[in-house]
Amino acid sequence: MKYQLKINGPRGEEKIIDLCENEEDMGRITVHQLKKKIARELKTNRGPKDGFTIFQLEESSLLSSYGIRHMSTIHTLLMLPGGV
Hints:
Ubiquitin-like (UB roll), Ubiquitin-like_domsf, Ubiquitin-like domain-containing protein
């Protein structure tokens, strides 16, 4: 069984991505690894560190520590340059 996630991209796109092949692999995937996968799948011009963010998730944390499992929905936000 493939483990998949539904991604709501920063520009309104929706996509289902294949994340891994088994539950053991799913338990080892970090937020940073997921961001790299999303950048590849959505074909963003920027890297995972400067293109978008996954709201409120620490880069080094495991997806499983947030209760993310097969067919969870992940919302991403576009990070814009500038500030106050």
